[in-house]
Write a sequence for this structure.
């Protein structure tokens, strides 16, 4: 008897879902930069899940539910919503911390901050390809000191070539990572049966069947309420002295060697509801590895300082 493989139906990515994501990305990126540089807080791309994307998806899902009631055929499917989610996550990662936010200043930092005292010009300027950076201090003056306009031709033209090259490099890197994900998917998903905790929430949020909808689950709202209350009390306690402060993170610092080698960052103890929730879905051996090697890293620092 021959075993027949089960046929799977895969819905294609629609043009409208990609278009919606493309239209949202500029506003999403501006929001990330505003939080990171203007407020210098709540860096949304530092940890998963990306709360900015989840917030946008909540708005889209609410609007989509309204459209489904009025024009059922015009509503977005789960695949389309997940396409938007994936594109926003990718764009957020590029616009977020340690990516574009760092790359753009690096194009000029090595030249603008070069001084006779630090001898940067002699140390590494000759190793920086001129087509990958912006080496002219006159052009960089407006970028670093302000009181100027980006739209003057003399300001933006020198940035075009290096930014275009870096954009191409980032595009190739992203495509390579996507290819690696496709190659590893079968082994990880079908053979090793790995779970993907950060994928569970968008999958549950975008389910189309009303009886399986996450937002109808009372346990979800109970957990959401507890986690929200803990975070709200903690944040409000830092703003209003009348509210008791609830510390969710505490670092232990040492004054004597070799233990003070752990001080930056210190040995931390935390109570983060999101981390507890994600840890629930992580395989036990992986969760143990995260905990063990964090402590082992501190042990190595102490050993190196002894």
């Amino acid at each position: 008897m021959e075993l027949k493989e089960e046929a799977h139906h895969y819905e294609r990515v629609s043009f409208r879902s990609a278009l919606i994501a493309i239209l949202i990305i500029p506003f999403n990126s501006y929001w990330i930069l505003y939080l990171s540089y203007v407020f210098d807080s709540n860096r949304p791309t530092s940890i998963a899940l990306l709360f900015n994307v989840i917030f946008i998806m909540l708005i889209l899902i609410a609007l989509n539910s309204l459209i489904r009631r009025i024009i059922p055929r015009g509503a977005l499917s789960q695949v389309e919503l997940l396409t938007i989610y994936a594109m926003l996550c990718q764009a957020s990662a590029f616009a977020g911390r340690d990516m574009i936010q760092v790359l753009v200043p690096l194009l000029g930092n090595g030249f603008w901050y070069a001084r006779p005292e630090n001898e940067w010009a002699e140390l590494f300027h000759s190793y920086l390809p001129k087509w990958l950076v912006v080496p002219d201090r006159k052009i960089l003056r407006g970028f670093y000191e302000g009181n100027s306009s980006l739209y003057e031709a003399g300001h933006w033209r020198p940035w075009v070539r290096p930014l275009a090259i870096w954009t191409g490099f980032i595009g190739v890197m992203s495509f390579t990572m996507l290819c690696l994900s496709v190659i590893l998917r079968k082994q990880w998903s079908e053979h090793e049966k790995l779970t993907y905790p950060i994928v569970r929430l968008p999958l549950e949020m975008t389910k189309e069947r009303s009886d399986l909808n996450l937002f109808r689950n009372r346990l979800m709202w109970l957990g959401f309420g507890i986690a929200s209350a803990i975070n709200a009390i903690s944040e409000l306690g830092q703003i209003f002295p009348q509210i008791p402060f609830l510390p969710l993170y505490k670092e232990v610092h040492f004054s004597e060697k070799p233990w003070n080698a752990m001080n930056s960052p210190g040995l931390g103890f935390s109570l983060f509801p999101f981390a507890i929730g994600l840890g629930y879905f992580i395989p036990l051996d992986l969760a143990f590895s995260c905990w063990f090697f964090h402590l082992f890293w501190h042990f190595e620092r102490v050993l190196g300082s002894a």
User: Anything to note?
Assistant: Residues 18 and 173 are 20 Å apart (CA to CA). The chain has three domains: 11-96, 99-216, 247-305. The chain has a mean pLDDT of 84. DSSP finds eleven helices and two strands in the chain.
